[in-house]
Amino acid sequence: MAAKGEPLINSERCKGCGLCIANCPKNILEMSKEFNSDGVTFPTLNDEETCTACTFCATMCPENAIQIRRF
Ligand code: SF4
Ligand code: SF4
Questions:
Q1: Confidence band, pLDDT 50/70/90 cuts, at residue 18
Q2: For 35-50, how does the pLDDT look when each residue is reduced to its tens digit (9 = 90+)?
Q3: Whole-model pTM?
Q4: For a substitution probing ligand 2, which of 15, 28, 46, 60 has the most ligand atoms within 8 Å of its CB?
Q5: Is 35 helix (H, G, I), strand (E, B) or coil?
Q6: Which residues pair with 43 in a beta bridge?
Q7: Domain span at residue 23?
């Protein structure tokens, strides 16, 4: 299925809680192996083709670190 959007992740706002990863129905978010300036790992997109722009990840984020761009 063609992607309908993509999550824009502000790594500097991220606190590394993992809620976005756990709640993505497509399982396309995973923790980075890099760290932000607070020493926290943050989510990255592992598949650019299947985001449905459902916004679950953005809704779950307590830090408001994710915005969804719709195509
Ligand atoms: S918008 Fe939905 S499908 Fe896309 S990354 Fe977030 S939770 Fe996953
Ligand atoms: S829900 Fe927000 S704070 Fe938690 S890991 Fe995802 S982007 Fe980071």
A1: very high
A2: 999 999 999 999 999 9
A3: 0.95
A4: 15
A5: coil
A6: 31
A7: 5-70
Q: How large is the greatest C-alpha to C-alpha distance in the chain, in angstroms?
A: 36
Tokens representing 4?
């309908």
Structure tokens at 61: 């984020």
Residue 28 CB contacts under 8 Å (≥ 6 apart), including other chains? 45, 46, 47, 50, 51
| Residues 6+ positions from 30 with CB-CB distance below 8 Å | 21, 43, 44, 46
CB 63 less than 6 A from any atom of ligand 2: yes
CATH of the domain at 54: 3.30.70.20
Q: Give the closest residue (by CA) to ligand 1 atom 8.
A: 24
